[in-house]
Amino acid sequence: MPALSEDGRAKVNLTLRVIGRRVDGYHELESVVAFADCADRITLSPGSELHLKTTGPLAQACGEGADNLVFKAAQLLGERVAGLTLGDFILDKMLPVAAGIGGGSADAAAALRLLARANGLAIDDARLIEVAQMTGADVPVCLASRACVMTGVGETLMPLSLPKMPCVMVNPRVPVATRDVFDALGLRSGELLVGAADVLQATAWPEDGASLEDWVEALAGGANDLEAPAMRIQPVIGEVLAALNASNGAWLARMSGSGATCFAIFENTAEAGRAAEKIRLDHPGWWVHAGVLS
Fold first, then answer.
1. What is the torsion angle, in degrees rounded to the nearest 10, for the CA atoms of residue 136, residue 142, residue 147 and residue 149?
2. Which of 4, 16, 56, 59 has the most CB atoms less than 10 A away?
3. Which residues of 244-261 are buried (b: 16+ CB within 10 A; e: fewer)?
4. Residues annotated as part of the active site
């Protein structure tokens, strides 16, 4: 069988509301999720054994192969599908690690899509979905890599129709551990962050065909509840947001996930490109991407 390839696209949380912490310790979330046009690249050469090689400019940040979520997802699927064809994975790492854009989760999801293709499994196979949920909270949403409202602990996905959103994404190359950010949020088991009435009232997002302006207005009414605790851990996040907010044409700037990557939405790609170039010049050590969310 020839080698197969998939992109692990960066996930961006346009909003992220923490509903509360369950008694089992997991946090209930509500998030509008989009996907960017920057990605890691995963290639699978099907075979009988499982191997993972990491290449690319950010390969060293991935750590040991056995700890990689690609490895974990493949092993879990192998435990559930008899005679699963595995093989040699090559991960071309382009996205920053521990950055709030689901890089590791996107890689694991891409690996699952590759294994599904190599083994004739449907993308909605119950075993594939189960493995995605077991591998990590962001893996199910990355499996589909489509804009949606994500709720629960990442397992409930409601598709959304988003317009193309010109954007700039910036990471100061400072890793932020998700666990540390949730610890800094300080919720006890069983504690709600919002009132019961707020939990019952679902946000009404724009309908299919709504304009970019309509969406930016709606998103501006939301927030990322992890932004403040993440900034206490890594104050440089505030500098990133300030740089984005100071950019000409930036309509909305916010942190994604648990940080430290932040994004801004622009009216058009030309303004986004100019803003990205200025930030690169002012902060040559930062990772900067100008592109489109969808």
1. -20
2. 16
3. beebebbbbbbbbbbbbb
4. 11, 138
Domains observed in the chain: 4-159 (3.30.230.10), 165-293 (3.30.70.890)
pTM of the model: 0.94
- Name, in order, each residue with C-beta under 8 angstroms of 69's C-beta and a sequence gap of 6 or more: 104, 105, 107, 108, 135, 136, 139
Report how far residue 115's alpha carbon sits from residue 109's, in angstroms, rounded to the nearest whole number.
10
3-class DSSP state of 187: coil
Burial zone of 139 (CB within 10 Å; 0-12 exposed, 13-18 middle, 19+ buried): buried
Preceding omega of 137 cis (within 30 degrees of 0): no
**How many C-beta atoms surround the C-beta of residue 232 within 10 A?**
13
* Residues of the chain where predicted confidence (pLDDT) is lower than 70: 64-66, 194-202
Find all residues with CB under 8 Å of 28, minimum gap 6, and list them. Answer: 18, 19, 20, 21, 22, 151, 152, 153
CB-CB contact of 224 with 237 (8 Å):
no
Bridge partners of 171?
287
d(CA 267, CA 213): 8
Sign, CA torsion 76/77/82/84:
negative
Q: How many residues does the chain have?
A: 294
d(CA 3, CA 99): 29
* Token pair of 273 as six digits: 């490109």
Give the whole-angstrom CA distance, residue 248 versus residue 272: 9
